[in-house]
Amino acid sequence: MTTYLVTIGLILILMxxxxxxxxxxxxxxxxxxxxxxxxxxxxxxxxxxxxxCGDGACDSKPHEPRY
Length: 67
Description:
By secondary structure, this protein is mostly helical. It is built from 1 helix and no strands. The chain has 2 domains: 35 residues; 30 residues, no CATH class. It starts with a helix and ends in a 36-residue tail after the last helix.
């Protein structure tokens, strides 16, 4: 029985720690906008939040350089 309680407690602690890490990452990205856009956990490059989706910036294939 104690094994189950320890396992449940450990999973809860890991989930809470992951939330803390995500929050710290968002704060860091907000304080340092020069490092690029925040990358959401849903994938993509995070550029859609800055309004660059129309440029095809979130495509996974490499782009040709724009001159």
